[in-house]
Amino acid sequence: MPLSQKIFALLICCFVFVVTINLVRKRKLREEYSVLWLATSILMFVLVLRYEWLVALTAFIGAGLPTTTLFICSTIFLILIAVQFSIKISHLTDQVKNLAQENALLRQEYVELKQVHSKDPVT
């Protein structure tokens, strides 16, 4: 890998890592979502420094070029992000459903209590 590409890739890795940490620190990104981003930036950093590992991984999976391996890994990363969001959306959907049901029950109870109190004379 040419030195200019190596420097560019290392800068991108460091940028992703620092931005992710900063977003977590400012509470704009939750820790549970930052794990994949941090792991990916660290893995990219290691693969840039140990390019022979990327070449060996490319040979292991039978890809033609290291860029193909990176493309496959990025596709896997996007799938993992989609699965993580699907799990979270499913959990939030259940929470919203339960809260809506509890709200409806409380509203009905409130209406019934209001009707009972409106019938009673004030003492």
Q: How many strand segments?
A: 0
Low-confidence stretches: none
What can be said about the biggest beta sheet? none
Oligomeric state: single chain
- The radius of gyration computed from the alpha-carbon positions, rounded to a whole number of angstroms, is 26 Å
Number of helices: 4
Helix content: over 70%
The helix-strand sequence is HHHH
Termini gap = 89 Å
Coarse shape: elongated
The total tally of domains equals 2
Query: What would you call the structural class?
Result: mainly alpha
The amount of beta strand, in percent, is: under 5%
Output mean pLDDT.
Answer: 91
Keywords for this structure?
123 residues, mainly alpha, 2 domains, elongated
Quick structural gist:
The chain is mainly alpha-helical. Helices cover about 85% and strands about 0% of the residues.
Structure report:
With 123 residues, the chain is an all-alpha fold. It folds into two domains: 49 residues; 58 residues. Helices cover 87% and strands 0% of the residues. It has four helices and no strands. Helix 1 packs antiparallel against helix 2 and helix 2 crosses helix 3. The longest helix has 54 residues. The chain is elongated and about 90 Å long. The protein starts with a helix and ends with a helix. The model has no long low-confidence stretch (mean pLDDT 91).
Write the layout of secondary structure elements.
Elements: H1 3-25, H2 31-49, H3 51-61, H4 66-119
